[in-house]
Structures are given as C-alpha cells and as structure tokens.
Amino acid sequence: MPHPSRPLSPHLQVYRPQLTSVLSISHRISGVALSLGALVFVWQLLAAAAGPLAFDGFQHMIGSWLGLALLVAWSAAFYFHLANGIRHLAWDAGYGFDLPTTYRSGVAVLIATVTLTAVTWIAVLIVWRH
Questions:
Q1: What's the pTM value of the predicted model, to 2 decimals?
Q2: What's the pLDDT score for residue 39?
Q3: What is the DSSP string of the chain?
Q4: Model pLDDT for residues 35-67, shown as the tens digit of each residue
Q5: Of 82, 72, 79, 86, the residue nearest 113 (C-alpha)
Q6: For the chain, what is the radius of gyration of the CA atoms?
Q7: Annotated domain spans of the chain
Q8: Does 1.20.1300.10 match the CATH number of domain 19-129?
Q9: Whole-angstrom Cα distance, residue 7 to residue 14?
Q10: Exposure of 85 in the CB half-sphere (CA atoms within 13 A)
C-alpha cells in the first residue's frame, strides 16, 4: 500500500519545471487564448453587422489600454502557438528529439515569439501614426 503522503503518480511537487514541460503547458494555454481571441473577432463582426453604434462601442473597448493589452497578448499567443506548432511538426517528422536540439528549438520558439510580436506591433504603431 502506498504511503499516504506520497503522490501515486509523477506530480508537480516531484519534478521541477523544465523548458520542455513549460513550453508544452504553454502551448495548450496559448491554444485556449487563441480560441478566446476568436470570440473577440466574432464580437467585432457582430458589432459591425449591428450598426455604427455597436461597432463604435467595440472600437472604444478594443482601443482602450485593456483592449490593446489583450490584442498584444493574443498576437503573442498566436506567434508562440505557430512557432511551437512548427517545432511539433519537425518532431512528427522525426527530427529534433535529442536533448540539445530540443532545448535549442525551445529557445528558438521563445525568440521567434518575442521577435514576431514586437515586429507586428512596431508595424501597427507605424501604420497608426500615418
């Protein structure tokens, strides 16, 4: 019979987080964030269909600091999920399973996420100023 204070299976208390496990969990979280972001897009379409007053309300919300923060977070989730999905495709093809390559590709996913998010929002700011 197992000891009552010990977990029955591997648990977060037993293992410390590693890059691979954190990226795996983050991939799932970013998928949920993308789904929620899609609902915001549907809200925008419904507001546009409902008329100028509803669309102005949506634009006011999405243009607020909270709306912009959500858009930045959504775009970061998009780029993370995309880059990590490409990494998973490489794994599905049988490449990149050795530990050093796994860590290098994980770091590459993080660098790609930050770079693509920053480039996107710099471009958005440049367009808004003109």
A1: 0.86
A2: 96
A3: ---TTS-SS--TTTS---HHHHHHHHHHHHHHHHHHHHHHHHHHHHHHHH-HHHHHHHHHHHTSHHHHHHHHHHHHHHHHHHHHHHHHHHHHTT---SHHHHHHHHHHHHHHHHHHHHHHHHHHHHHHH-
A4: 999 999 999 999 999 999 999 999 999 999 999
A5: 79
A6: 20
A7: 19-129
A8: yes
A9: 9
A10: 9
Both structure tokens of 72: 């930045």
Counting other chains too, the contacts that 22-31 makes at CB distance below 8 Å and 24 or more residues apart are: 23/84, 23/106, 23/109, 26/80, 26/84, 27/80, 27/81, 27/84, 27/85, 27/88, 29/77, 30/77, 30/78, 30/80, 30/81, 30/84, 31/81
